[in-house]
Amino acid sequence: MHKDKVYDSIILGIDPGTNIMGYGVLGCTKKSFELITTGVVHLSKLENQAQKLKKIFERCLYLIDTYHPNELAIEAPFFGKNVQSMLKLGRAQGTAMAAALYRDMPIFEYAPKKVKQSITGNGNASKEQVAAMLQTLCKFEEIPTYLDATDGLAVAVCHFFQGSHTDTGLKKSAKSGGWSAFAKNNPDRIA
Questions:
Q1: pTM (2 decimals)?
Q2: pLDDT digits (tens, 9 = 90+) for 114-152
Q3: Is 148 noted as a catalytic residue in this protein?
Q4: 138 CB contacts (<8 Å, ≥6 apart)?
């Protein structure tokens, strides 16, 4: 990202995790996007769940304050058989969302299959297939060691493809699954 580069909007994509959180930041114009940065936050060496959540919150605020995104696109937890894993993943996602809310950013949530479908055309694509397609779309030389990074980037690219961003980056579309739409459609899930 060039310091003098002006984008219509900037999207922060996050793939929440309890051991590794992946992220990607896209600079967007009305018709195209470019990779600003991508990476991971390692959480597995932290002592307990509370420390992991604190690190997620702090890192998300750092990303927001550094890159000034207009919107957060985040992957929704998938429904697995292990309830404890689902609970931990939901907490990680909620913590990342709380950081965005703390900075008054709109939030857009996407199911994993929707993200894969948007990037590869196949909702059952592997992480490797998603990473390979992103390498072509975003023009980066090497696929990251941790595919959580490309998973976070994939959510941002998916959000761009949904057309939910605007020339100001502030208009939200209910069809995209924005946080306000989620809250409106799921009042029983909001405490």
A1: 0.83
A2: 999 999 999 999 999 999 999 999 999 999 999 999 999
A3: yes
A4: 33, 34, 35, 153, 157
